[in-house]
Amino acid sequence: MGKVLLLRIICVVVLNAPRLRFFYHRSLKKILNHAKSQPQFTSLLFYFIYLFFVHIVVSHYIQNNYTIVDCFLERVKKQPNKPFLLFKDETFTYQDADRLSNQAARALLQNGLVKQGDTVTFFVTNEPMFVWLWLAVFKIGCSAALLNTNIRSKSLLHCFKCSGAQVLLVAEVAQPFQRFPMKICETCDFVNVISLACLKWRGNYFVTSYNFFSGTGFPKAAVISHTKLWRFVMILRSCGLKSDDVLYVSLPLYHSAGLAGVTGAIDLGITVALKRKFSSSQFWDDCRKYNVTAIQYIGEIMRFLCNTPKKPNDRSHKVRIAIGNGIRANVWRDFLNRFGNIQILELYGATEGNIILMNYSGKIGAVGRDNFFFPFALIKYDVEQGKPLRDSTGLCIQVPKGEPGLLVAEISVRAPFLGYARDLQQTEKKKLHDVLKKGDVFFNTGDLMLIDKDGFVYFHDRIGDTFRWKGENVSTNEVADVITQVDYITEATVYGVEVPGNEGRIGMAAIALKDGHTFDSEGVFKHLESFLPAYARPRFIRIQSSLDVTGTFKLMKAGLVKEGFNPSAIPDPLYFLDDREKKFVPLTMDIVHAVLSGKIKI
């Protein structure tokens, strides 16, 4: 009873804060009911205080036009000689980062490449120069469009167009850019430029950046506002990181998770150990080398680490916190058993989404917990029809606890959905109207989730034409478009299939050939290698005489997904992408067994 009373007092204080009343006006009763039924009251109270704190801080920052660059400059002033970035054998202090980003900004300005308010596109891998450039464009007062460095061909050109960028920054002028009519600035030219008085050039803008990611069709540019960026930044603070921590970032900086690591480090004034590309064999050696205390992950990273050969020094490290998303329960347990008592903080969210969940109590397998701050619902969804089920009144039907449903989050002033840059159609497609009551609008996450009796939320599956492999979202439509560029392939449908022991779904394509043509295994391999990143190339190909379609001529995938890639059960010819042979080879049961046992790495 005393615990509930304490929470009631906190709620009363919050509800009497005029500027925050709108945020909590519907929450008091739900908070109290929720608290009475939860055995883990301490973690619930902590999470409530965290959300309260984040809202206070973010609201203050936004109202005062306080940006991440302002925060960075304060860190430079207070701790100029503290290491900010560790990369290979180099150490860059906060003062170094300020000086080098000033040089980058001056180079852009003196060469007439940018002006305040422009959008600047990045095509740069994980390296210190990425951070200097990112800080530079913010100091000037520009927005940044962060490109996935794996994309190629039409997707790459599409991203340039929809970002509205005036300048492209690349580490080197590669062949894909030589025919594109944009200003190109090679980052290696910035080193000897005179320092910039940055405050003279900075400006605050609503849009800080565009983060590109794959979905249905071409990659879309999620709009990241200052408010949203600050919410990303606050994730590290909410996870209990302190000013003396060292954060290891091996996730791509063009991803919101990787960027949140660096910006969150600025907020806390901590040191970042930056890795150009994740390496399972070098991961723990790097952690020991840089005295890392916190790491970022996606589910695949944790599985890769668990699959490395065991070593006597597996527990010889200083890592105490792991922050990320997508770890499966069995991998979670294996990771803790092998590498020690590391606090794993599993998160759920989407770059463009309006909801963030945190598994603040460490329940293995859960992505978060039902809360009263971000109103959401799990609704019944017809996977075959590709739309939510509705009742006789036209409203969506909520699923009971323990059953999977489509996760949708209410769009409101405190939980906005900013959509995709220059793509109103895709923005509207992510909205669901009349969900729980007439006139409401919800964000469609595209994820099927379930909630247990204690309010813990679990990921179930993804819907639609996207699957996730190697930590990347793969657009089936985009891959199919590339495949059908081969002149003798008339149709292609792409889908993800499960491979036991692997996170996500691996790509498989069913194709139909023109009469009289045979499958050119080497030619198709070379074509896919030229136009698709490795994670998006289908590893299995199924050749059919024709592809089944619905009455509205949509390709049918459900049956194909269910049948998978078992040669003994599928009469059609099957092929497997062999990286060593650099071609597709006939799929045999021996190859299947080798894949399932892990002898063949995929």
Q: How would you describe what is shown here?
A:
- Belongs to the ATP-dependent AMP-binding enzyme family.
- It catalyses: a very long-chain fatty acid + ATP + CoA = a very long-chain fatty acyl-CoA + AMP + diphosphate; tetracosanoate + ATP + CoA = tetracosanoyl-CoA + AMP + diphosphate.
- Pfam families: AMP-binding (PF00501), AMP-binding_C (PF13193).
- Keywords: Fatty acid metabolism, Ligase, Lipid metabolism, Lipid transport, Membrane, Transmembrane, Transmembrane helix, Transport.
- InterPro entries: AMP-bd_C (IPR025110), AMP-bd_C_sf (IPR045851), AMP-dep_synth/lig_dom (IPR000873), ANL_N_sf (IPR042099).
- There is one protein chain.
- The protein has 18 helices and 29 strands.
- It has an 8-stranded mixed sheet with strand order 2-1-10-9-11-12-13-14.
- Residues about 10-30 and about 185-205 have low confidence and may be disordered.
- Helix 4 runs antiparallel to helix 9 (about 225-240).
- It starts with a helix and ends in a 5-residue tail after the last helix.
- The protein folds into 3 domains: about 70-345, ANL, N-terminal domain (Rossmann fold), CATH 3.40.50.12780; about 375-465, Luciferase, Domain 3 (Luciferase, domain 3), CATH 2.30.38.10; about 465-595, 2-Layer Sandwich (GMP Synthetase, Chain A, domain 3), CATH 3.30.300.30.
- The chain has about 600 residues and is an alpha/beta fold.
